[in-house]
Design brief:
heterotrimer; A mainly alpha (about 325); B alpha/beta (about 450); C alpha+beta (about 300); A: about 325 residues; mainly alpha; two-stranded antiparallel ribbon; 3 strands; about 60% helix; B: about 450 residues; alpha/beta; Rossmann fold; 6-stranded mixed beta sheet; 4-stranded antiparallel beta sheet; 17 strands
């Protein structure tokens, strides 16, 4: 027996650590990564490796040389950002575009604010939106999945892009859906144009269920986004099915599942309380649908989440848990 | 699955009741005991013996130093060796009466037979006086003098007595063993308490991880034929045994900030306190011993020991084979709210319920990293506070904001620090801020009182 | 095109003039008349806003000083007598010079003489440590070593000596603002007069335990033996609660107590020569013998 340790209570600690939580998120993302590998092949894995490596390197060098603090890459948050960033771009994107995305995500969106826990906006999304605005060609030229062992790539628009283009040329929603050959089953499990993370809703949902079961995240934000998107789409679609796409189509396309399950639920940039989370989710859902129906971009989840990120401090202040024994 | 539990927050640490199958056995008499004069909340007791006096077991060695204070009795027979400051388990000097043990002579008034006395005296005032003379204090941890709790301020009315058998802290099993081995006495003690409070209903709350105790106490109540005493099976959740949480769980009422349990009609007493009440009222036996769980994964054997008050900790640990090499921290009490022991020469007090030995791996704190705003501390806080915010305000020293955010409601249960994935020492800072805010509130109350006095004149 | 430019310039100019007028009127209307001397006094202050004077900052000090009938209850420890002389000149008061002070840490229980008995694993703050425990050494009065005083000092005058584990006061930087005095939960730090040419003598221990207990915890603790009290010919040393205290106003810096202290808890600083203990002891012995003889006669 050496010197007895003394410390204030409590003397035990739960098994959760920042690292274990982030590791759980990585595990939850694995099905989606696996599916994208199967559909897009080695190139997707290469992109992911570039993305993760640049995120880690940036965080390490910024903490080491600029902030002169102990390195924080051990908490794995940079790995999560790297994976999310890679899942947010088409697999045809050149690798150096991803490096730029990582610089924006880590350098501007995260470390400028002081690192993990201090940032206002989700780093991966800031990176993605930056790329979307700066390199629209790479970011919107989607390829039909080529497959690990599959045939040649076929270039085509994303479902949401196709619908918007079609609507502008005067076609009705039903016509577009028929010409593009979309049906809900395909959308649900795979094989639509888009970034890797939009590929397979089922794989993403499996990760979401895993996170909820492990109590890493609470489901309220995600569920309220889904509910709001479905309800808004139902109302508009009910009013004019020729002009507006329906709820199921909107739920399954355009990275909504990825955004709702993994980006909107990021601890740092989402409200803490249940009701704050619900309002946050409703806001994201409404903004997404407004951008999709009336905006010039076919896709709105990223913008919606970033806009609502800005309201998180207000939501945290407005929605507090009821205190014990107080009115 | 029972559904009774409190409404906000809480955590679910592994219960680790590894000493649950060890019957309570008496520890041999120590050669010397050290009776601390402040082993209860309130004013320290005043010694009434002098150096060289011979004392018997159960003889008064100190009398209350104020209204909120308690008698202290000799736990052994022998000679008073010294009266003076001695370091307690936190290393702070406390006045102690040192008694060298000679034989085991008990005061004649104490009924040492094993017979269960079920006939309860009818005079409630006499019962409370006996409890007072028996030096009974709350043995759940706060050590608040019991007789004070049993005399509610005028205008308030008790509606239910709750006997706290939750033992929600991990590792601890002394209350569980007491329920199993002294169930009859505890139930009679509960019956005494409910009679004193005006024949109100009584609930014995036991968490569902102690099914044997729940079954046993139900049988005892049926056997003794008591009406108005029921056993409530509680969901396992920490800090269920916190007074406010337990009242919420049992009665569905929340005690307001700064208010006493009696304000919602509740009186809560611990299982060990109920036993002490039985001993004091039915057997004339003051608190001279208490059961102490000695446990820890690094110990070769676990134990529940009946220990005379004032026994040096080292002696208790020797009884289980000494402190193992791998033990890094010794805690008096449970792992969530207990105090780490600074020196093993310190002696037990009435409220000592456990000695827990943890290894470095079990107890070493991880290095603190940045807050990731996960909100786990706020989810875990059973008082509905926001520990992350309080922590920040404490560091800034903003007492007004701290009070506005109800830091004074903190019960120091440790859920926030337990659940923080970034290992931020939330409670360390909050405890400090709470002290400062409570000081400010008290100072304000004193000033207001003085102003009122001045206005009167 | 030209008309657009002309219009733009015109509108902006008009807007500018109107807004400037509004700002002027508002400033005029809400102007608070202040004693101009407050500004002057504030300018004369060091501007550290440390609160050492007991006011929230230099401006608060100035406001209070202007209203006060004299400067007896106002003293800026940071600026010292120079600053106070300037303030007095502005306000037309007289000021008495005060002896300059310095923070003295009254604990000399270094790691070497006061071994750690426990290892502290909580938040590294003396205040937090002191809320629950007496400390991680056997001494329940001494320095906790987490550096709350260092954090409180805004002049960078305090630093922890990693070797002794005790805070060190930088005499050149210490302004005697008293922030460290408030920060120390063990009340170890005292503001003492700096002394002639910085020379001063102090008992660097506040351990109130009885001799054997104190000695066991720390080899250089004051054990309350009273030798220093008997030695001192100036009645400068008080022994209370088992601990000696040297009154700086009575101390004549003869260093006899320092030489006689059996545990070495009395320390003198800034003396030109190191203390020759044996010589001093010899001197005391001869003097005491003489006194004895005188008493016999």
């Amino acid at each position: 027996m050496g010197k007895l340790i003394i410390s204030p209570s409590p003397h035990i600690h739960s098994k959760d650590s920042t690292r274990s939580l982030m590791l759980d998120v990585v595990i939850a993302l694995l099905p989606a990564v696996l599916v994208s590998f199967v559909f897009y092949g080695w190139r997707e894995i290469l992109l992911m490796a570039v993305s993760i490596a640049s995120c880690l390197l940036l965080e390490w060098s910024i903490t080491r040389y600029l902030l002169k603090k102990p390195s924080t890459i051990g908490d794995l948050s940079a790995v999560v950002t790297g994976i999310l960033l890679a899942l947010n771009v088409p697999y045809t994107t050149p690798w150096w575009v991803l490096v730029i995305g990582a610089v924006v995500a880590m350098g501007i969106a995260k470390m400028t604010f002081g690192g993990l826990g201090q940032n206002i906006w989700n780093p991966a999304l800031v990176g993605r939106v930056f790329l979307l605005v700066s390199f629209p060609t790479y970011m919107t030229t989607w390829s039909q999945p080529q497959g690990l062992f599959g045939a040649d790539a076929v270039t085509g628009p994303t479902p949401l892009g196709a619908v918007q283009e079609g609507l502008m040329s005067g076609a009705s929603v039903q016509d577009i859906m028929a010409t593009q050959g979309y049906d809900y089953a395909t959308l649900l499990y795979a094989n639509i144009g888009g970034s890797a993370g939009e590929l397979c809703a089922l794989a993403l949902l499996a990760g979401f269920v895993y996170l909820c079961c492990r109590r890493v995240i609470k489901p309220w934000i995600t569920l309220s986004i889904f509910a709001t998107v479905a309800l808004t789409a139902l109302i508009f679609w009910g009013i004019n099915p020729d002009r507006f796409t329906g709820p199921v189509f909107n739920l399954l396309t355009g990275g909504l599942v990825l955004g709702a399950c993994f980006m909107a639920t990021d601890y740092v940039t989402s409200p803490m309380s249940v009701w704050g989370g619900v309002i946050f989710g409703v806001g994201i859902g409404l903004l997404t649908m407004m951008i999709r129906y009336f905006g010039s971009y076919p896709e709105g989840v990223s913008f919606a989440i970033l806009i609502m990120n800005s309201f998180v401090p207000l939501l945290n202040m407005a929605f507090k848990q009821k205190k014990f024994g107080r009115k | 699955m029972s559904k009774h539990t409190f409404s906000i927050g809480g955590v679910h640490p592994h219960d680790n009741k590894i000493s649950r199958d060890c019957p309570i056995r008496p520890l041999p008499l120590p050669p010397t005991v050290y009776l601390a004069m402040s082993q209860h909340i309130g004013a320290p007791a005043k010694p009434v013996v002098a150096v060289g006096d011979k004392v018997n077991v159960g003889q008064v060695v100190a009398e209350p130093g104020g209204f909120v204070s308690a008698f202290i009795h000799s736990s052994v027979s022998g000679t008073v060796k010294s009266i003076g400051p001695r370091k307690d388990l936190a290393g702070n000097p406390v006045t102690c009466v040192e008694i060298a043990v000679e034989g085991d002579e008990w005061d004649e008034s104490i009924d040492r037979s094993e017979d269960l006395v079920t006939a309860i005296p009818s005079d409630n005032k006499a019962i409370i006086e006996k409890i007072r003379l028996g030096g009974v204090v709350g043995l759940g941890g706060a050590t608040f003098p019991t007789h004070v709790k049993l005399m509610p301020p005028p205008g308030s009315k008790c509606e239910r007595v709750i006997i706290n058998g939750c033992e929600c802290e991990p590792y601890l099993t002394s209350d569980f063993r007491t329920l199993l081995e002294k169930g009859e006495q505890v139930v009679v003690g509960a019956a005494i308490l409910r009679q004193v409070m005006g024949n109100v209903p009584c609930t014995i709350a036991i968490e569902e991880n102690k099914p044997e105790a729940i079954v046993h106490i139900r049988e005892v109540i049926a056997k003794l034929g008591y009406e108005g005493i029921e056993v409530m099976s509680m969901k396992m959740r920490y800090p269920q045994g916190g007074e406010k949480q337990l009242i919420d769980a049992v009665m569905g009422r929340q005690v307001g900030s700064g208010a006493l349990p009696i304000s919602v009609g509740a009186v809560v007493q611990n299982v060990a306190t109920a036993l002490a009440v039985y001993d004091a009222v039915q057997k004339n036996k003051p608190i001279i011993d208490n059961s102490v769980t000695v446990t820890g994964g690094c110990l070769p054997e676990q134990a529940n020991l009946l220990v005379r008050v004032g026994t040096p900790l080292q002696m208790i640990l020797d009884a289980v084979g000494g402190v193992p090499e791998s033990a890094a921290k010794i805690i008096s009490g449970g792992p969530m709210m207990g105090k780490a022991v600074v020196n093993l020469e310190a002696a037990t007090v009435k409220g000592t319920g456990a000695l827990l030995l943890l290894t470095e791996a079990e107890t070493r704190r991880g290095s603190a990293s940045a807050c990731i705003r996960c909100g786990k501390c706020a989810d875990a806080c059973p008082m509905g506070l926001e520990p992350f915010l309080l922590n920040r305000l404490c560091k800034a020293g903003d007492l007004e904001a701290l009070e506005a955010n109800a830091i004074q409601d903190c019960i120091e249960c440790g859920c926030c620090l337990y659940s923080c994935p970034a290992n931020i020492p939330l409670l360390d800072n909050i405890r400090l801020g709470k002290g400062a805010v409570l000081g400010a509130i008290r100072a304000r109350a004193v000033a207001a009182k003085a102003a009122a006095e001045a206005a009167k004149q | 095109m030209t008309s657009i430019i002309i219009w733009t310039i015109a509108i902006i100019t008009v807007l500018g003039v109107v807004l400037a007028l509004v700002l002027y009127l508002v400033a005029k209307k809400f102007k608070v008349e202040e004693d101009p001397r407050i500004d002057e006094v504030e300018k004369a202050m060091p501007g550290a806003n440390c609160g050492g004077c007991g006011y929230a900052g230099c401006r608060a000090f100035a406001e209070s000083a202007v209203k006060a009938p004299n400067l007896d209850s106002h003293f800026c420890p940071v600026g010292g007598n120079d600053t106070m002389a300037r303030v007095a000149a502005i306000l037309g008061y007289e000021v008495k010079a005060k002896a300059p002070q310095i923070a003295v840490v009254r604990c000399n229980g270094s790691c070497a003489v006061r071994p750690k008995t426990n290892e502290y694993d909580g938040y590294p703050s003396c205040k937090v440590k002191a809320t629950l425990y007496s400390g991680d050494t056997g001494c329940s009065f001494g320095c906790l070593g987490c550096g709350d005083c260092v954090a409180a000092c805004q002049f960078g005058a305090l630093s922890m000596d990693p070797e002794t584990g005790l805070p060190v006061v930088d005499e050149a930087k210490c302004t005697a603002c008293g922030a460290c005095v408030k920060a120390c939960p063990k009340l170890l730090i005292e503001l003492r007069p700096k002394g002639p040419r910085g020379m001063r003598e102090a008992v660097l221990c506040v351990n109130k335990d009885k001799g054997p207990v104190a000695k066991k915890a720390c080899a250089s603790a004051c054990i309350g033996c009273g030798i220093c009290v008997k030695t001192c010919t100036h009645e400068a040393i008080i022994l209370e609660n088992n601990v000696a205290y040297i009154d700086p106003l009575k101390c004549k810096l003869c260093r006899e107590c320092e030489a006689m202290c059996p545990t070495g808890s009395i320390h003198g600083v800034n003396f030109p020569k190191p203390l020759d203990k044996d010589a001093v002891k010899e001197r005391i012995k001869i003097r005491q013998q003489k006194e004895k003889e005188a008493a016999h006669v």
